[in-house]
Design goal:
The structure is a homodimer. Chain A contains 22 helices and five strands. Chain A has three domains: about 160 residues, Alpha Horseshoe (MgtE N-terminal fold), CATH 1.25.60.10; about 120 residues, CBS-domain (Roll), CATH 3.10.580.10; about 170 residues, SLC41 divalent cation transporters, integral membrane domain (Tetracycline Repressor, domain 2, Orthogonal Bundle), CATH 1.10.357. Chain A has about 475 residues and is mainly alpha-helical.
């Protein structure tokens, strides 16, 4: 993030203010389309000229209005506009801000913006960005343009870009930037202060300077506040903190986010295996990561792979939503075949057909509750075998008690509806057994995924629902066949 | 957060390191229980004395080990231990750290720790905390103790505490702290530097000082980096930023979190309606809020009201999980009664019983996908009527296309299974119609909640599933009755 707009942004901290700006912009655009229409229909050269001027003035005013905005707000506005208006506004965004805005918009909108840019505009946008920001955009740029950007970079930058691109999205290597201010341990603070006063600006989120020795190994940090508060005659090493959190580029981004949260960090050093300082992670990169991870989690819960905005083409949406529907088609078919096994029982006692979805559905609830509690527990720590045994015992006991409560209630309701005591006992038993099944697999699925080193949450809900559906139908209809059929 | 451990924490930035510490601690405790056993069984006074000393030394070593840890890590360790070991460790935590640890642990664990503390220990813990931190703990402290804390506070602190307690959890008033460093606009930077050098420390997350005039109205901020980089002869107002994000105590915490994210803030001023500076919000409070909001969202998706850890008593877990099961019992019963309406049809054609859960289940998927996309859209902005019309049209068109694809596929599968072309047409039609129902209510539910000013996500999933279940059964069995029965 460059510094240009960070200190004095035209701000819109409330959704209502942003909505008002969007309304303004759209009104200005609507008025201008009207003028455009007048220009086209104008018979009279003089009138046409006047209207052309008005039109141009309007566009200039609009461009000025946009230029005052923070790039993050411009991004939000572009996301909120239908494609034609979005493109009109995008053409008015000042070239200096193009890069920043591209960084901030969602993937879907970025694609639409890039599609409207030519090679030169992309090169200009790339020029305004830092290496770590370029690395974030690189996958979306045409390979040819990226190659050109690459060749224009100074050698050091080029190596950094190659470095940043070599780490996957969920690692510290992808999160870090290279905006380091380093000082030596043996110089006096007064010298550091003089050195700083010669600088024009410090990188954003600089709460500390990094202390290194001659071979750039990392030895500690000195907080800006200590530069301000300490006696200027002290040496840096006398005012610095030695034991600080440090990360390696191959560390998991999520672990790093947890550490930022636990230790209330604003920035932290990234070192290589020889403890050489190579970059830093800042809280804003961490917050962005947390938001993206949350968004991805939400989407993946309903099997969506990418965000869609409401202006995205229908075909893309249909494709985006298909994989989950396909998976569920398969699991639903399995459940359906399980029911098909018992068609004789259902023919004899049609009440079974009405009751069986209750057994399946409530089992699914129990399983999803168990998974949610365990995934939450796994977010903070790894479970050892003793913990896992405890989990099984606890969840199974809860399921047993809940099975008696809700199974009992459903048995009673069944009796009131159908006046069949054998059927109501089967119902109560099936609910209890399916609750136990749900609890058992509700522990087994996330714990197994953890042991395999996978994300314990991913796909767990779909899997548990498939098990409690098919399992619930099988248990209920099976018990009914054994105890009620003759 | 006090500063004491922030600069030089004994850190455990990776889960594996924390796990190792927990293992160490548990081993030390196990060894000590062994020694304790020896003391009890000792026949010989001399032996007993020796073993008592060993026991005591062990406890001291353990206490030292714990004292070196960051309070957030002590909190994680306490959460990972079963109740008896947790209490043993808690009694070893240094009194100075009690308050910080209480702030960091989960609600459930905090209850168990407070239950083991007497009045005096609680008062001591309260003494180590800032007003805004006290406000966070206040609801969990016994009223009597809180009253006593209150009376011991200086008048200004007391008013702040009352202030912080008067704002609900999801507002800026509850997020803010009072650790402000203020300066006047007309003094020279050199004077500010001298003033700072007389201070012992600055509050954590001080990236800027707040500039106020005589009646403490807020006029701007000056960044620490500008204090370091600017000419010391300049006046503060010449180096300060005037237009900065500011919040009011009644603002929504979530809106504030969005603004921190968009504008990459570290701290921001909170002002009252007369623009008087009353406090600040820092990024660590925002990150904590984001984490808690995410946790709450996850729990509420499966109808859980509070977190449970794996050592929580069973009875509490059973109670915690009941409301959702109760709600689902009702929705499942409704769906069951819908099926009951068509028992004649099922008796005639038992294949209907096997096929109906597919119609209901896949409709639920479509509805949940629609809701997820819309909730995501609503997180960033408010939708106007034009947007909402666009949403309905888009989602219904996607549902129609998906209905044709998946309805068609299911129609075909039905024909292959049952060789009944009328049944397979009914299946295809029912799937398509239920997809359209799901899309319609998938837009209507969150949009209506938004218009009523509620959280669009809360409970939406339960509601849409209830609709697509009962609706799916009704559509499928209804079509079957009309077209297949005679």
């Amino acid at each position: 993030m460059t510094n240009q707009h960070a200190t004095e942004p035209k701000i819109a901290e409330k959704p209502a203010e942003l909505a008002a700006i969007i309304r303004d912009i759209r009104e200005m655009m609507a008025r201008n389309r009207l003028v455009e229409g007048l220009v086209d229909r104008s018979q009279d050269a003089h009138h046409e000229l006047v209207e052309r001027i008005v039109h141009k003035q309007n566009l200039t005013r609009l461009a000025q209005k946009i230029e005052q905005l923070h790039p993050a707000d411009i991004a939000l506005i572009l996301e909120a506009l239908p494609v034609d208006e979005r493109m009109a506004i995008w053409s008015l965004v000042h070239a200096d801000q193009d890069g920043e805005v591209l960084l901030e918009v969602s993937d879907a909108v970025r694609m639409s913006l890039l599609a409207a840019m030519d090679r030169e505009e992309m090169l200009n946008a790339a020029n305004t960005l830092d290496t770590d920001e370029l690395a974030d955009l690189a996958p979306d740029f045409p390979a040819q343009v990226m190659q050109e950007v690459f060749t224009t970079l100074p050698l050091a930058e080029r190596e950094r870009l190659r470095f940043a691109l070599s780490y996957p999205e969920d690692t510290v290597g992808a999160l870090m930037d290279f905006d380091l201010v380093t000082v030596r341990a043996d110089v006096r603070i007064e010298v550091v202060l003089r050195y700083l006063r010669r600088m024009e600006d410090l990188p954003d989120h600089t709460d500390k300077l990094f202390v290194v020795n001659r071979d750039s190994s990392f030895v500690g940090v000195i907080y800006l506040k200590n530069l301000l508060l300490s006696d200027p005659d002290l040496a840096v090493h006398q005012a610095m903190a030695k034991e600080v959190v440090r990360f390696h580029p191959e560390d998991k981004a999520r672990t790093t986010a947890d550490a930022f949260e636990r230790y209330d960090l604003v920035s932290a050093p990234v070192v290589d295996e020889h403890n050489r300082l190579i970059g830093r992670v800042t809280i804003n990169a961490v917050v962005d990561f947390i938001r993206e991870a949350r968004d991805e989690e939400r989407l993946s819960q309903v099997g969506l792979r990418e965000e869609e905005d409401i202006f995205a083409p229908i075909a893309r949406s249909v494709k985006n939503r298909s994989p989950w529907l396909a998976v569920n088609l398969v699991t639903a078919l399995v459940a359906s075949r399980v029911i098909g096994l018992f068609d004789g029982a259902i023919e004899q006692l049609v009440a079974l057909a009405a009751l069986m979805p209750i057994v399946a559905g409530m089992g699914g609830n129990v399983g999803n509750q168990t998974i949610t509690m365990i995934v939450r527990e796994l977010a903070f720590r790894t479970l050892d075998n003793r913990d896992i045994r405890l989990l099984y015992s606890k969840e199974l006991r809860i399921a047993l008690i809940n099975g008696m409560i809700w199974g009992g209630a459903l048995g009673l309701i069944t009796f009131l509806l159908y006046h069949d005591s054998a059927l109501s006992l089967v119902m109560a038993g099936a609910v209890s057994l399916n609750f136990l099944t749900a609890a058992f697999f509700g522990v087994t699925i996330p714990v197994t995924r953890m042991k395999l080193g996978r994300d314990p949450a991913l796909g767990s809900s779909v899997l548990i629902t498939a098990i409690t559906d098919s399992g619930g139908f099988f248990i209920f209809l099976g018990l009914a066949t054994v105890f009620l059929m003759n």
